[in-house]
Structures are given as structure tokens and as C-alpha cells.
Amino acid sequence: MRLLLAAILLGLLVPLAGAGSALAQSPLALSASPLPFNPEDKTQETIGGLRWRGGLEITSDDPRFGGLSDLVLAPDGSAFTAISDAGRWVTARLTYDSAGKLAGITGGASGTLRNAQGLLLEGKREQDAEALVRLDDGSLMVAFERNHRLLQYGKGGLASVPKAVPAPADLAGARANAGLEALVALAGNRLLAFTEGQKMGDSYAIYLREADGRWHTLALRPKGLFVPTGAAQLPNGDVLLLERRFTLLGGLGARLSRIPLAAIRPGAQLTGSEIAELRPPLSLDNFEGVAVHRLDDGSVRLTLVSDDNFSPLQRTLIVQFELLTPP
């Protein structure tokens, strides 16, 4: 009798385990429409130190799609993994035309992020994922706002159960919507973390984690009304910083700057040298994430993603630029 009951229970549990695995991710139908760099001047191809290499407006009938806040790319730029501030992740493949310009998107999939206990994230305070970076061991680190914290997802990717990683102690003093917004993995198992709005006098707080896990505080000196939204590392080790500006008079703008690797040390006050500023009428939206990859010919591509805030007035854009003076 006991054996019979055990067999019955096992028969019930196996389908449930399979269902849980199936629910970890699901196909996501995505559509892509090509973007011109400048809708008012179709001949424009460059801005500052950048050359336009194609852009897409991404849409989906799935109401859960949107709010993309950061991304990482495959080394060859053929695929991406992104996170959303609604506690979800998205993966898809990117396609390119014969000229090497970004042309389309295929093979979408999505799922819900989990916490360190294996539970699905629920509520905005837990779901607000803002920064994503791939570490040297292949794991993925995600930074969250509101409930300021770091979670590290292992070999199973963002569908797996993460482990909690100690965040900077001073981050607890950041306002709910002013926490970690960008992460960069530096050599030697170091991590650089930018806040969106945690003030240190007239600067923004940055945190540098050493290989032994100790955090140090740095500062970013702001220029104008821009705030940090994304960052990535260039092939020579310098840090690429993405910033956003929005004003009622000036509208939306984005800026890309370079921070020398040699300047990044405990207690430093950092400032970037501008590569380019994007403003209307160029094709842009609320750019929050940036990734870098190098092509076989040695050229360096920058990929930006925008957060549509699940608003019908905004768009999810993925755009690419070539760095005209690669490091």
C-alpha cells in the first residue's frame, strides 16, 4: 500500500516539476520596424564620434513586454539578454543586412526573475531591475532599485535561482528611485556601480567593489542636467557611460562619454569626455542600457536599448553605432 501511494505521489510530482520548468521561460513574439538615424535628414550618418549602424523599434502583442532597462550582448553581437524594471528578462537574436547594419530580431523568449529563495519577484519594490552585467565567470549580476540590492544569476542564466551579493552599505541611504543604475565588470573581479541620483555634495555616488568584496566610494561630477543610466567597458578597459536628460523645454537627450580606466580608484571624482550627444530630431527615446562588442574587422559597436515605461507615448528601441575612433 505504501509503495502504491509513493508511486501515485511520484506520478503527480513529475508533471508538476515539468510544468515549473516550462514556466521558467516562454516564447515571445517580437516585431521590428527599421529606424532612420535622422528622420528629417536621411543623409546624416554620423554624430560626434559615432557612426549610425542601424536601429529598430521593437513591439510585441504580449502586454508584459517593455520597460527594458539594460542588456548584454553575445561577443559577436548576434544575440542579447535584457532585463526589465517589471522584474522580467528577455532574450532574442539580432540579424544584420549585407552592409552589417542592424536589420531585424528573431527567436524571442521571456520569463520572470526570481529571488534568492527561488520565488518569483512580486511588486514594484522587488521587481525594479535596472542594471545587468556579465561577469568573468559567465554569471550575470543584476542591480535593483527601490529595494536596493544585487543578485547574481549562475550558469542557468536569468531563469535560474540567484544568490544575494552584499551591496555597498551606504546605498541604503539612497532614495527609492536613485539607486544603482549601471554596472561594469572590471578586470580582477572588480565591479563598478553607478547610481542614478544618490548625491554626494554636487556629485553622484559611484561604488567600486574590490576582488575581496570590499566596497569603496567614488563620485561622478555631473555635466549639465544629465544623469547616469547605463555603462559598459570598452575593449581597452575604459568605461563607456550612457546618460539621459529630460526637460520640458529641451525634451529628451542622451549622451555617451568615456571615462579612463586609470582614473577609476577609491575616492576619485570621475568625469567623462564626451563622445556624442543625441537629441531630436535624431531617433531616440529613454535610453537606459548600453553594451559593447568588437567585430572581426576590429571595429567597435555600441548597442543602446530604451525603456518605454509601458507608456503608449514611448517606444522600445534598439540602436547601434560604430565608434569612429576605437580604443
Percentage of residues in strands:
over 45%
What name does the CATH topology carry? Neuraminidase
- The chain-level mean pLDDT equals 92
* Main beta sheet: 6 strands, antiparallel
Q: Topology as H/E string?
A: HEEEEEEEEHEEEEEEEEEEEEEEEE
CATH class: Mainly Beta
Any idea what the radius of gyration is?
Answer: 20 Å
Number of helices: 2
| Global outline | globular
Q: What structural category arises from helix and sheet content?
A: mainly beta
Report on this model:
This protein is mainly β and 327 residues long. The protein has one domain (25-323): 6 Propeller (Neuraminidase), CATH 2.120.10. It contains 2 helices and 24 strands. The strands form 5 sheets. Strands 2, 3, 4, 22, 23 and 24 form a 6-stranded antiparallel beta sheet that branches. The chain has a 5-stranded antiparallel beta sheet with strand order 1-8-7-6-5, with no helix packed on it. Residues 1-23 have low confidence and may be disordered.
Provide a quick synopsis of the model:
With 327 residues, the chain is mainly β. It contains two helices and 24 strands. The chain is globular and about 50 Å long.
Keywords:
327 residues; 8% helix; disordered N terminus; mainly beta; six-stranded antiparallel beta sheet; 24 strands; Neuraminidase
